[in-house]
Amino acid sequence: MHHKKTNTLKRRGRAMIIVGTIFLTILASLTIWILIAGPKLPAETDAIIDEVLNNELPELFTGKTGVVTSDGLDIWYESISPEGQSKGTVLLNIGMGASALDWPPKFVREFVDSGYQVIRYDQRGTGMSDWVADWDSKNPYSLADMAGDAVAVLDALEINEAHIVGLSMGGMIAQEIAINHPDRVTTLTLMLTTGHAVDPEMPGLTSRYFISTMVKGIPLLKYRIAGGEKNLIKERIAKTISGLGYEELDIKEIAETVLYDLRKRKGLNFRGVLQHRKAVEVSPSRYEKLKTIDIPTIVIHGTDDQFIPIEHGKKLVELIPNAKGLWIDGMGHVFPFPNMSELMKKILLHLDDAHR
Q: What residues contact residue 307 under an 8 Å CB cut-off, 6+ apart?
């Protein structure tokens, strides 16, 4: 009896050793994969980052900045004026969880150099605007509330009418502005967005895409785990390569932007991302109201967008009376877009046409 018990304990011991060995092997393999996987950073990355770290940061906001109160919250904004006579005003509305700093400098400069005043602002819960500390998931704010923040910025600057540009969630906010304040909108530029994010009859975010995105993001954890300014810059560079490839990469610009956010602003608010997502979920369909707006509109969407599939963009063109679609072959949910300079010519032509 004692002999059998001893053998049983030995078998259990061997089994535990085998299981432990397998676990450690998997853990070691995962660690190695995290360390070596992910996009390869260009050879000059370290040198460029070191240069930025060792030099004085440039001021990334060179326009007139201010704060306006909207719905009890302070909303930060920047207004950049062109040289000479202004052709009009462009109001930029960024995507979920992002701030004014996330608009690529070249994208902003294109409008200013073409004669337009540009306004960008930190949406509630981001950047230097108020972060909503007492947010209640059972009584969240909506996209219409966020559109009210944008209009409050226009009011503070005494701007009666503007070209409204919106990216992803910002495109949804742009629609809310056009629906509720049509007299304040000269044109609409809607990029990678939808008229109803949770429409059950439209394709949405697939589990396959969600899982693949999560898997692709695992190797980037090495930068976050290592921590420090340099690694956080590398993380952003790797994410940019994952989305746009190497051709659109400006390492110095990315390094300056990340460092500016870390040193001179408040960084990313993860709670703000969740709040924005909830605002999208609780906001009702805009389909019927979009049929009533009489505003020149261009809808830009990638044919391979799996976050907000292109069917949503085509639906917007179908609903908005004066909308035109611009579909970019093979592009996913990324910004800036590939071959951005050519696309900017079309966006600027869309704006200029409204003044002829």
A: 168, 192, 205, 209, 332, 333
